[in-house]
């Protein structure tokens, strides 16, 4: 929601917000942007009356005093994800990064690759990428990178947030059972992810983890978009990798495309990098350029 606030302010809206126990890095980002943050929730936070109220899903439920004032007062309201879809993403080439793990890191990699290539992407990421030092910006080009979260949208909209994003390029990183507070089982999560798959146009691209059986099972329910796999013999591969993942060659369909030498480590980050490079190529970035960009990738700040 802090990123949503930053995007709204960049579009010229006067933005204020209410939250409880806000901490860095988001509290620092809001302060640096001059966005007024009110501690806790109270009806008088709606005075003067806002033109529109954007409601998040973290701790906002019936009984919340500010939410009750919104409903009683007849204010115009919508969810953060719906606001994004209507006001930011509608006319953009959306590159969505979805999956149980790795969304923040992979989205940060992808946004930086596009930036390095001179495409000036907008982005909304659940952390603060070191190459940008902000979690969200409108950008100057047609591309917008967004972390496509499967958690539900709000107390009044139980669809996953990504239902509002309509990506043209989709990274489907992995899929495991998660969010037991809202999903009864893996099948319920797969249903939401398949709704996302159904929203990607035939002219788009799905970049999918070729080793994840749950990803494969979701795509087998029906897919109308070209798919490029990573970690797959017939798709995007890493070869000649350093033992810690700090360097590796990249190939697609057996063709060598470049070598990544960077500050990150771990097989999981190698997989994230392959996915980001594949998505960037769909947006027109040559793999060699993407490999050079990853060499300057500065990581991402998270809650911990």
Labels describing this entry:
seven-stranded mixed sheet, 18 strands, single chain, alpha/beta, three-stranded antiparallel sheet, 9 helices, globular, 304 residues
Helix content: 25-40%
Give Rg in angstroms.
20 Å
Structural class: alpha/beta
Strand order of the largest sheet: 8-6-9-5-12-13-14
Which shape, going by the Cα principal axes? globular
* Distance between the first and last residues' Cα: 18 Å
- Note poorly predicted spans: none
- Please count the beta strands (DSSP E, at least 2 residues each): 18
Major sheet attributes = 7 strands, mixed
Task: Please tally the helical runs, counting DSSP H or I stretches of 4 or more residues.
Answer: 9
Strand content: 15-25%
Mean pLDDT: 95
Element order: H for helix, E for strand:
HEHEEHEHEHEEEEEEEHEHEEEEHHE
Q: Would you write up a description of this structure?
A:
It is a single chain. The protein has 304 residues and is α/β, with parallel strands linked by helices. The chain is 31% helix and 23% strand. The protein contains 9 helices and 18 strands. The protein has helices spanning 2-10, 26-33, 65-73, 80-87, 103-116, 186-199, 213-220, 267-282, 287-294, and strands at residues 16-19, 36-39, 53-55, 77-79, 93-98, 122-124, 128-129, 136-137, 143-147, 152-154, 157-160, 169-172, 205-209, 227-230, 236-239, 247-252, 255-261, 300-301. The strands form 6 sheets. It has a 7-stranded mixed beta sheet with strand order 8-6-9-5-12-13-14, sandwiched between helices. β12 (169-172), α6 (186-199) and β13 (205-209) form a beta-alpha-beta unit. The longest helix has 16 residues, at 267-282. The model has no long low-confidence stretch (mean pLDDT 95).
């Amino acid at each position: 929601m802090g990123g949503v606030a930053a995007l709204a302010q960049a579009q010229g809206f006067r933005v204020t917000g209410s939250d409880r126990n806000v901490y860095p890095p988001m509290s620092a980002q809001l302060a640096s942007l001059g966005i007024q943050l009110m501690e806790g929730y109270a009806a008088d936070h709606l005075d003067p009356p806002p033109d529109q109220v954007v409601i998040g899903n973290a701790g906002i439920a019936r009984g919340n005093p500010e939410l009750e004032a919104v409903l009683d007062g007849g204010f115009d309201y919508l969810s953060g994800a719906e606001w994004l879809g209507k006001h930011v993403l509608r006319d953009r080439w959306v590159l969505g990064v979805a999956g149980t793990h790795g969304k923040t890191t992979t989205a940060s990699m992808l946004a930086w690759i596009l930036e390095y290539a001179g495409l000036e992407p907008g982005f909304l990421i659940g952390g603060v990428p070191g190459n940008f030092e902000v979690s969200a910006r409108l950008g100057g080009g047609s591309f917008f990178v967004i972390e496509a979260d499967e958690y539900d949208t709000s107390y009044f909209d139980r669809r996953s947030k990504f239902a509002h994003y309509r990506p043209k390029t989709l990274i489907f990183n992995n899929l495991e059972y998660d969010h037991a507070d809202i999903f009864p089982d893996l099948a319920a999560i797969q249903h939401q992810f398949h709704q996302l798959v159904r929203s990607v146009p035939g002219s788009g691209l799905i970049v999918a983890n070729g080793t994840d059986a749950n990803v494969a099972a979701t795509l087998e329910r029906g897919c109308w978009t070209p798919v490029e796999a990573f970690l797959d013999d017939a798709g995007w591969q890493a070869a000649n990798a350093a033992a810690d993942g700090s360097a590796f060659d990249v190939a697609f369909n057996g063709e060598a495309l470049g070598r990544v030498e960077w500050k990150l480590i771990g097989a999981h980050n190698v997989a994230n990098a392959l996915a980001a490079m594949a998505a960037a190529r769909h947006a027109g970035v040559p793999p060699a350029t993407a490999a050079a960009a990853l060499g300057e990738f500065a990581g991402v700040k998270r809650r911990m």
